[in-house]
Amino acid sequence: MGGTFDPIHFGHLLAAERAREAADLDEVRFMPTFAPPHKTPLPHASPEDRLAMVRLAIADHPQFRLETAELERGGVSYSYDTAKLLTEREPENRWFWIVGGDMVLYLPRWHRIESLAEMVTFLGVTRPGFTVTAGAIPEPLRKRVELIEMPEIGFSSSDIRERRSRGLSIRYAVPEPVRIYIEERGLYL
């Protein structure tokens, strides 16, 4: 599960858990991106801070792991490049890419999508206010995408950053160790 995780929040964790259960995954790797190709500007928190927050958020889940491949590589994080690296490094694994339901319809625009879809199966997790049906997925990708339902969660990383910048509480939006880290580091002020 890749993302900026700026910051990681309970919506990310719940999406990962639902995808893990639905696809019967052995583990979910959280992979902070260095520079996502579809988002500008760059993340607000440093790569080191985002990595630390993910580490804190997943520490108590035995099937959640940290994957640092994209941070180590630096530059724009294309999923194709990362999937190629992971499949070469661990050819014995079957790979799934957890994406938000809103991103499923944008898959045809992803860098080298045809080659990427040969390496991974996409798990499209529904998101608040955005419904995707199998028929909406472009035909060539349809067999490589599984849709997973998730309860609606009414906050996002941008909402959390906004609340923090206004001095409002982010308690219960992020895991408590992440909240403490954000406050101690003075992030998002």
**Gyration radius over CA:** 16 Å
Structural class comes to: alpha/beta
The end-to-end span amounts to 27 Å
Name the helix and strand elements from N-terminus to C-terminus, one letter apiece.
Answer: EHEHEHHEHHEHEHH
Number of helical segments with 4 or more residues: 9
Strand order in the sheet with the most strands: 1-2-3
Mean pLDDT across residues: 92
Characterize the biggest β-sheet.
Answer: 3 strands, parallel
What percent strand? Answer: 5-15%
Query: Helical amount among residues, as a percent range?
Result: 25-40%
**Which runs of at least 5 residues are low in confidence (pLDDT < 50)?**
none
Please count the beta strands (DSSP E, at least 2 residues each): 6
Shape field? globular
Give short descriptive properties of this protein.
single chain, 189 residues, alpha/beta, 3-stranded parallel sheet, 9 helices, 40% helix, 14% strand
Would you mind describing this structure in some detail?
The chain is α/β, with parallel strands linked by helices. The protein contains 9 helices and 6 strands. It has helices at residues 10-22, 47-58, 69-73, 79-89, 101-104, 113-119, 139-142, 157-165, 176-185, and strands at 2-3, 28-32, 64-66, 95-100, 120-125, 145-148. The strands form 2 sheets. It has a 3-stranded parallel beta sheet. It has a 3-stranded parallel beta sheet with strand order 4-5-6. The longest helix has 13 residues, at 10-22. The protein is globular, with a radius of gyration of 16 Å. The mean pLDDT is 92.
